[in-house]
Amino acid sequence: MGKCPQCGEWNTLVEEELTDKASAAPISMREGKPISFDAIEIGTLYKKRCNIGELDRVLGGGIVEGSLVLVGGDPGIGKSTILLQMAHNLASSNMRVLYVTGEESAVQLKIRGERLGVGGAHLLIYPEVILEKIKEQIFFLSPGLVIIDSIQSVFSSRIDAPPGSVSQIRHCAGTLMEIAKGMNIPVFVIGHVTKDGWIAGPKMLEHLVDTVLYFEGDTSGAFRVLRTVKNRFGPTGEIGVFEMKANGLVEVKDPSGVFIHGLGGDLSGSAVMTTIEGTRAFVVEVQSLVSRTTFSMPKRISIGVDLSRISVLLAVMEKRAGLAFSNADVVISVAGGIKVTEPAADLAVVMAIASSALDKPLPKGMIFIGEVGLNGEIRAVSRIETRINEARKMGFSTVTIPDVNVLRLDKPPAKAGIRLVPVVHIKDAFDLFEAKV
Ligand SMILES: Nc1ncnc2c1ncn2[C@@H]1O[C@H](COP(=O)(O)OP(=O)(O)OP(=O)(O)O)[C@@H](O)[C@H]1O
Ligand SMILES: [Mg+2]
Q: What predicted TM-score, i.e. pTM, was given to this entire model?
């Protein structure tokens, strides 16, 4: 059967073979008996920094002993590059690092390594795909860190299925988890993504691992964003920003400047906002293009913003502010390939669309922050002070924020050089097209 009659998905059925007990039992090196909660000693959760600040940040402060980390992302986005750089940094601090490459030969890896300037006697490269052999080497070498590039290429001879299949990935990931927990070694696993952007293989893979890091960004552009999707040892939603250069991925410590082009205001269809990702605020530019169409089904294209949110905002603008989009294609794009998921981006999206539809640029140096409700009202957003301060730091002169936020500002941010424009409804915001700043 190729299709599961229950969930309707293809190729998700897994053949389970009964094997003898000894080989099927996982290598269990954990404490054998139940212990009282009070008797558990935490010790210190040791986090080893790899000295790539942006990577340490998304890992929640550093690499946790015995953790299994999954790194996913589009082909060619830089997964092998970042992990090789990390391996080099740790190997330079006298940690033995085992880099298992199942996809590339040792020579290919060496060529990349030369370009990145990595090396060192503690960095061990192991071109192998058979899980049992990898396990043997890990037991033999007991490295301080293991990197598997990639989980889809590894296969166990015990499972009668091709590499990359659901049962292989499940078995290999499970074994690596036991190794990580049993030997207290951090294991990094690279995972491919499918066409729709999910990590290939069973969803279970993401449940099983401790941390999931995801590379996003435009492979053709220079900037890459590493996002924490799941983390058992730290906060999620944190991002690390990198620039791809010939000598590898270089950290962008202050990402604010890289996603905008000047202070806006010259062209229609562009609005700038401050977004908060994890602990940092930075400014991003939302661009829009509204063009007439003669087709009965107008197109809605969105890069970086949730498409269903765009539909909602278009409906609100049509109903509450009288702008019609039924015969217009609408394209929305967040510059730099970054994804903005928070509702605080609504106002900037609405302003960018309106600016393009009316073909009027927004005033220069203006930032838009606010969630848009279904009645067209502008709703309060969190951490407004941080956003305003970031806007000022980047040289913007005016910040349009929800009226409700102004009333609640307990400590008004230092006013020097920044003007706050409170708005109640999207119609008030549209009046800004005529404003002289
Ligand atoms: N000389 C160079 N200068 C700048 N960037 C380069 C250079 N050579 C390669 N790159 C970048 O490195 C990327 C490949 O990185 P890497 O092999 O780490 O990606 P990956 O995510 O591991 O890909 P895959 O899924 O194929 O394993 C290329 O897409 C390119 O952007
Ligand atoms: Mg690779």
A: 0.80
